[in-house]
Amino acid sequence: MPIKLSLERLADRLAQAGTVFVPGASAEPVELTQLLVAQPAYGAGTRFMAAFVPGMNRANLASAATQRRMHSFFMPPEYQADWRAGLIDFTPTSYFGAHRLVASAQSGITTLVVQVAAPDRHGLCSLGAAGELVPSAIRAGVRVLGLINPRVPAIPHALQVPFDAFDAVAESVVPLANYDVGPASAVAEQIATHLAGLIPDGASLQLGLGKIPAQLAKALRPRRRLRLYSGMLSDSFLDLVDAGCLDPDAPIVVGMIVGSAELYARLSQLPQLRMASVAETHAPEALAAVPALYAINSALEVDLLGQVNAEVQGGSYVSGPGGLPDFAAAAHRQADGLSVIALPSSGAGGKLSRIVASFGAGVPVTVPKHDVDAIVTEYGVALIKNVDLDQRALRIAAIAHPNHRDTLQEAAKRLFRA
Known about the structure:
Blueprint: E1 3-4, H1 7-12, E2 19-22, H2 30-38, E3 47-50, E4 69-72, H3 80-84, E5 88-90, H4 95-102, E6 109-116, E7 124-126, H5 134-137, E8 143-148, E9 160-162, E10 168-171, H6 186-196, E11 204-207, H7 211-219, E12 227-233, H8 237-242, E13 252-257, H9 261-266, E14 273-275, H10 278-281, H11 284-288, E15 293-297, E16 301-303, E17 308-309, E18 312-313, E19 316-317, H12 324-333, E20 338-342, E21 346-347, E22 352-353, E23 355-356, E24 374-377, E25 380-383, H13 389-398, H14 402-414
Parallel strand pairs: 1-10, 2-3, 2-6, 3-4, 4-5, 6-8, 8-10, 11-12, 11-15, 12-13, 13-14, 15-20, 16-23, 20-24
Antiparallel strand pairs: 7-9, 16-17, 18-19, 21-22, 24-25
């Protein structure tokens, strides 16, 4: 049986602990991470590994004063100073790549901290709204520390950890990490309308986070027999549930659910919901078996070749690849699937084009051009699947913001002909 400790005494066990894996998204043990940030003496000399989601999991566990390091699969702005100081290691891999690293001895993981519900009558603790990378990190020789939190939702088909697998546990009663997409926007609504025209009845949807997926769920209310197979879902997927859009015989398969307290409270009422680990949701062989996969993702910018940058903005990293490369490649490879990138045409009130002739020096290609089938802005849809280079560039330029369209169309005509 695990030892029962206070949160502070549990945190004491993280000092000089080698590499400690801490899950992100709604699985973040918020009370513990807040303690670690507020009191850097806890976990001194330890390396923390995490896939904290930008805009949601804001804790930076690195500390120069106590020689704490962090290994991250995302690079939000909050990490920039410590990254430059050499305290943060950033691995820009996809979620499936993160799974393979976390599951391997190369990760060096010695300890796993996981937030769960109280054990049921079978002695099993639910992971609730997140599978994430926790199953990847559990293996022989890894010490498992648990936070028992009554706020973790009781989902019928959630992943579970045996209570006896924990070395020690503490109680935590704080709300789960939440995610708020913010108010609707006219641009997102226009993009969603264009997207809805691409998606047929019976499609399997992967939706990312943000305003566009939220608006898309509303635009898809007339559709029927849709399926959901996604790395992440947020509050907006309930619009599809409530409108009767989903195939009643198909499970809703998802790795992480992030959103409001109201969303978490409702998850136990969805018998179709099945939580899965990244090892399943992002695995190439599993994605290949998903019927008619439509991967709908966003980006920071797209070039005239159809290449996608979802990581760097203004010369600095602000994110990481996440699940975008995994789903884009899988959807493109299906004869009846579609890999779609949806983004506003511009920023800064139309002064900055998010469609560019070519990426600047050092800007990474998160998704290569051959894994993108369509690009959507508020000005329309550029279908580029099986289209030659000239037509591809012209179609992408045609959906740019009017302030930049002429320049991009001229650049498209000269592409690689200078």
